[in-house]
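TL;DR need structure tokens for one chain.
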Amino acid sequence: MDNATLLFDTPLGGEPLGCISFELFADKVPKTAENIHALTTGEKGFGYKHSCFHRVISGFMCQGVTSPHPNGTGSKSICGEKFYENLILKQMSPGILSMANAGPNTNGFQFFICTAKTEWLDDKHVILAR
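>> reply
TL;DR here they are.
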């Protein structure tokens, strides 16, 4: 997979706000890039369509999930429940797209977009796009 552009159509209250685009770092984090690309396109029959940003922390990040339920239950990734990817990319900063996780080797389906510089998250979350 090339470093493709990932697109999120973003509504608020059913009204479109616009489209958020990211350049995937598929050359650095191929498994994670393939996972989020498939979840975004829905090519596996499930994904982010009709999902929401279920967690927004002002001055920090917006977190999204592949789930029809606001609390994130019923979610999945194309890689199974959890998977490993390297942590070679650094510099968490505004506009960086990363995988949310529950510790080492627990990447899955939740992602977050940084809205501020968050270097304390380096070596904890896979950075997959900007």
